[in-house]
Amino acid sequence: MLSLRELEKRLSNRAFRLAFDALALAFFILVILFPTLFLFAYVATGWEEVRDFVFHNPVSGDIRWHRMLTAVAISFQVAAVTTALDLAFGIPLALLLARYDFRGRRLLDALVDLPLGVPSAALGASMVLFWATGYGIGPLFGRPTGLLSRGFWLVVLTHVAFTFPYIVRSLVGVIEGIDVTYEHASRTLGAPSFTTFRTITAPLSLPGIMAGAILAFTRSLGETGATMIVAGLVETAPLAVVSMHERRLVASAAFLSMLLVLVGLAMLGAMRFVAEKFGLPFRGAWPEVERKLSGRRQRAFRDIGTLSFLGALVILPSCFSIPYVARFWPLVVQAVFRAEDEKWKLLVDGLVTSFEVALLATAINLVMGLSMAILIVRRDWGRLNRLLDALVDLPLVIPTAALGFSVYLFWGPRGLGLLETGFWLIVLTHVAFTYPYVVRTLVAALRSVDPALEEAARTLGAPPLTAFRTVVLPLIGTGLFA
What we know:
By secondary structure, the protein is mainly alpha-helical.
């Protein structure tokens, strides 16, 4: 029987490495890339249905085309307002977490990520309870039926709740990587703290600002689950895709999904172009205004406002279903656990299925995501490395409804015909959606590891796979866990 070292030595040869690389590329192309490309091919082949239903319908003419444009416009408005609010309050919070050491900082840092752990449907239900019923914040303002009704602004607040952590996380990491010497030098020369931020910190943080803004905008543009619960009569583009699919207007849903993919790609390109052409700081100086904005009172007002925003608009609404259930626990027990239709069994089955999907998607992405991260960081393929690095982010700019629909078309009866709607199609959709997050985290972790450590292990006789397992893997353990 082969020992572990002998097995790793055999698996470290060139043939196995080429097979490993081929498997990683094949998975990426087949599971991540092809479903999106197939969407365009399907629209082309089903163009007659699209034309007859959307543009030249015998009964409604082109009214459905205008409804699509309206839905896309609403999605843009929601995403733009959401991103603006995220940036306005996320940048001060990121500065607070990255540059100040205070009691409760770790707790605050953990609370920022709380909405990421709430499933989107549960988040939507919690937001409705908090904002749109008499059990939430409404009675405090004399509104017994709720402070807001389901509609545009409740959609915006819901999107703010789940996109806010992306802005803060992107910025905290970038700001912490900026050498504070530059900021100290600026203040030593007499610049107020606001001027220092505008002329030093903000320009150096621009990649993080743009990355967070792009991610927040595209996640808002494509959000479906929570939006279905809070939208009311408002129809965003992802909801229109779902509605068309339910009415079996497959080609039309594919057409709108294709539009959303193109819009996401265009926004990604436009934001990167703007970041390169129009950087920070803005020209001009307002010394008196900036000195006043740098005062202790103004900083305290900024911090209180930022923390109030986090608590009142992000944390409390996201978790409000917990105190609501606690308050009405006897009714919950009666309606769920003691009811004759045994709703609790459906609840348990749903939870088990959700955990199975999450575990499978996570396991697949950890293996295949690590493989892709190794290709991007460790292989010297020139332009191909940069191309892969860019294409990995493709699912991030595709709205979730469009991504799910493209996976359904590709793997389902209208594409390869390998899968029916159900468990495995859900798993593949979750794999495609979460793949970029895993790869991005592992790429950053691998780049932080000094290659000289791995080379030292090989110099001492360790096979490449053994060197990776004993040296690199422990060092990127945090990235794997994240």
